[in-house]
Amino acid sequence: MSHYHAVVWLDHSEAHVFHFTPEDVQKLTAQSTELRPHQHHKRGSSGSGNAKEDHAYFEHIAGLLKGAQEILVVGPAKAKLDLIKHIHKHHQDMVPKIAGVETLDHPTDGQLVAYARKYFVAKDRMIQS
After folding, report:
1. Is pLDDT above 50 for 120?
2. At residue 2, does pLDDT exceed 80?
3. pLDDT of 7-35, one tens digit each?
4. Which residues fall within 8 angstroms of residue 117, CB to CB, at 6 or more apart?
5. Is residue 47, in this structure, part of any structural domain at all?
6. Which residues contact 29 (CB under 8 A, 6 or more apart)?
7. Domain residue limits at 59
């Protein structure tokens, strides 16, 4: 079955991708290839505390998003923006398919899909107005 919409929730260690229609949901997951324990730095120590881009992880996520015509990217922190930068740099054909980028903490799978469905209904209503 072909799914028009997709939502991806991600942080720097895992991603949950859902392709969906009003009646159907397909879940895919990706794990970072790098272990990323919470980083704590003492004041004055070297290093910014920012995780470097995990190219293989973002490539895997981009591959899981293939086929979707509209994509919503959500997550609690900076990883969602790193994915967007990666897509702009390596998958320019996907850029017009990014419908939005939203901050969303740690929803359950059901909450995430419900949020995405509501998001796309509202987006479609705005376009029709």
Report:
1. yes
2. no
3. 999 999 999 999 999 889 999 999 998 75
4. 5, 20, 22
5. no
6. 14, 15, 16, 17
7. 5-33+52-128
Gap between the Cα atoms of 43 and 16, Å rounded: 34
> What pairs with residue 70 in β-bridges?
5
Beta-carbon contacts of 58 under 8 Å, excluding residues fewer than 6 positions away, are 82, 83, 86, 87, 90
Note whether residue 41 is domain-resident.
Answer: no
Kindly state whether residue 27 falls inside one of the protein's structural domains: yes
> Residues of the chain with pLDDT > 90: what percent?
71
| Residues present in the chain in total | 129
Q: What is the CA radius of gyration of the chain?
A: 16
Give the model's pLDDT for residue 35.
54
pLDDT for the residue 128: 61
60 backbone dihedrals φ, ψ, rounded to 5°: -60, -45
Give how many domains the chain has, as a whole number.
1
The amino acid occupying position 7 is V
The Cα 54–Cα 38 span in angstroms is 16
- CATH code of the domain covering residue 63: 3.30.420.60
In a domain, 23, yes or no: yes
Cα(110)–Cα(127) distance, integer angstroms? 26
